[in-house]
Design brief:
Layout lengths: L16 E2 L11 H9 L13 H11 L6 E4 L2 H12 L6 E4 L7 H8 L3 E2 L11 E6 L11 H10 L2 E5 L13 H5 L4 E6 H4 L8 E4 L2 H8 L9 H12 L8 H16 L4 E3 L6 E6 L4 H12 L1 E2 L1 E2 L10 E5 L3 H18 L1
Parallel strand pairs: 1-11, 3-4, 3-5, 5-6, 6-7
Antiparallel strand pairs: 2-8, 7-8, 9-10, 10-13, 12-13
Helix pairs in contact: 2-9, 3-4, 10-12, 11-12
Length: 338
């Protein structure tokens, strides 16, 4: 298991603004909480072993068959399930797309004995599983449809992790296309769509054959009753946690511009709501500690992400006033450092 993710508020009491998590920070969960309070009786019985009623609901919503849907205990659980399934004499190697990317792909493959390809794009791709994060975490890049189509032609299996699909205006592969493909597995995170990270719930969309393979390895009762109840209510009521994505992404670009105005801070381009940045006059860990202690602001130290250094950090856009406090806190830290 990878240690040191974002949203580690449990290590930093008193945080007022959490820039370390990629979950939409200001979702109104009051109606969901009220619904769950009225339905707490579900915890007195076992949940469905396979969350089938939720799978049927997702299938109807997106115009696919229930046999194309597998509900999991969050998208991350699906990552490990896929690595386990395709390590069984189906794939020998794995690759990832853009680097840096989400480290759990490599961790899951390592855990189940898949080997990292030494030469990318060689003839051995016929027994290789390719992992794509789209939009990519932590860079915010988005793959074009042409890139994905090319990868699907050249690899045995392609996993497209679309956990942040609700946080970009760029074109993203629809559910029906993944369901109609023989070698694509598409990951979705209701955790991120509905801003409920404490309730682990996600799902896989793939062909009936691939979903059947995954079912052979999934644990019974993998998803708890409250998570199932919450997801069903949110989907049935077509809840939208973000009222204006375009404005939110516009604020992201404003924040990026403010960060780049600080000498010694390099904030990269992004097509979503989080920004990968680099600090040249200190380390990300030192900046994180200072902001948490002095300003009660939490950022993501990205130094443990493959391909990044001790100087990389990631921030997720908050409200304008919170973003301005972050910028002022970094400026203050710079003065303190010198």
């Amino acid at each position: 298991m990878i240690q040191g993710h974002g949203d580690d508020t449990y290590n930093y009491p008193g945080i007022r603004s959490n820039f370390s998590s990629n979950i939409y920070p200001h979702a109104d969960l009051s109606a969901l909480k009220a619904h769950l309070c009225k339905n707490m009786g579900v915890i007195g019985n076992y949940p469905e072993p396979d969350a089938h009623s939720l799978e049927e609901l997702i299938a109807r919503k997106y115009g696919v068959s229930a046999t194309n849907v597998l509900v999991t205990n969050g998208a991350t659980d699906a990552i490990y399930l896929i690595a386990q399934t395709f390590s069984k004499n189906t794939c020998t190697y794995y690759e990832t797309g853009y680097l840096p990317t989400f480290c759990e792909y490599e961790d899951a493959c390592r855990m189940f004995g898949l080997k990292k390809r030494a030469e990318r794009g060689s003839q051995a791709s016929g027994n290789t599983i390719l992992w794509l994060c789209n939009p990519n975490n932590p860079t915010g890049d988005v793959y074009s449809t042409e890139e994905i189509a090319r990868y699907a032609r050249n690899y045995a299996f392609v996993v497209i992790d679309q956990s942040y699909e609700e946080y970009t205006l760029a074109p993203i592969m629809p559910h029906q296309e993944a369901a109609g493909s023989e070698n694509i597995l598409q990951l979705h995170s209701l955790t991120k769509t509905f801003a409920i990270p404490g309730l682990r719930i996600g799902y896989v969309i793939a062909s009936e054959h691939l979903i059947a393979l995954l079912r052979e390895n999934i644990r019974p009762w993998a998803v708890n009753a409250l998570a199932i109840e919450a997801a069903k209510w949110l989907i049935e009521n077509d809840v939208q946690m973000m009222s204006d994505l375009r404005s939110y992404l516009s604020e992201t670009q404003r924040l990026r511009g403010m960060l780049n105005q600080i000498e010694g801070i390099i904030a990269a381009n992004t097509q979503t709501h989080f920004i990968l940045s680099q600090i040249t006059f200190s380390t990300a860990a030192q900046l994180k500690a200072y902001l948490a202690r002095k300003h009660h602001l939490l950022i993501r130290d990205a130094s443990n992400i493959c391909g990044l250094s001790a100087h990389h950090f990631r921030v997720s856009t908050q409200r304008p006033d919170e973003n301005e406090r972050l910028v002022e806190g970094i400026k203050e830290f710079k003065q303190y450092s010198f």
